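User: Thanks for the earlier help. One more: DNA metabolism protein. Can you show the sequence and predicted structure together?

Assistant: Of course, both are below.
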Amino acid sequence: MTEVIYDATYEGWLTAVFEIYEYKYADIVFAKKETSGTLLFANTHLAVTDVAKAKRVLDGLKKRLSAEGISNLYNAFLSEEPQIEETMLQFARYVLANSKNVEEDFSNDAIRNLRKAARLTGKESHRMEAFVRFKLTKDKLYYAIIEPDCDVLPLIENHFKKRYADQYWLIYDVKRKYGIYYDLEKVSVVELQFNPESLSTKHLTEICDENEEFFQNLWRHYFKSVNIESRKNMKLHIQHMPKRYWKHLIEKIPNANN
């Protein structure tokens, strides 16, 4: 058994696949950034991200997969499902071992599991596009806090760049401790030292634009007015808007004046 350590990036995983073939490793377990310590007698291999190696693996996969198949592989990686790297490796091995496209061969466990993980990421990214709620700071920066199950920032970047092209904005993922920032020209990845206390009502009052509370309350009243009490179906509502998102949704946060 070999534990392959990589830097938790997609390019790092592709590099690891290249070296797994290069060194003819058979039984593989992936670890991110450092050894997991769970395999006492395993050999370890550190795969240092190499763009050229990553490109060779990706090019080989592109020859045998459709654009959707390549997209599914990337989305599966972003799902962060348990052992997803091992599933992706099984998928890649099966694809590279065949001269024809096999991505629709659902008799293969790796193909089924990878497609399932990709769908999970796709669903989560669509939800984030709908559920992101921006707040305006005194510096005229629109910011939003999210905490998705999957790493969806790379997938929702273009949506918000097109939709809010004339505004400075930042979307920060508190679970993964990084965000994306738009400066009216380009989107950049940023890493912040984030303090949970910065979400307190007192702190938000200090940094938010003076009209922000007014517009938040306006949105809450609108949301309340369009909901017909007699037709309320909480089971369906939670299905479309799971409770795990509520703490970052303005319409679900009580008015501080209530």
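User: Great, one quick takeaway?

Assistant: The mean pLDDT is 83.
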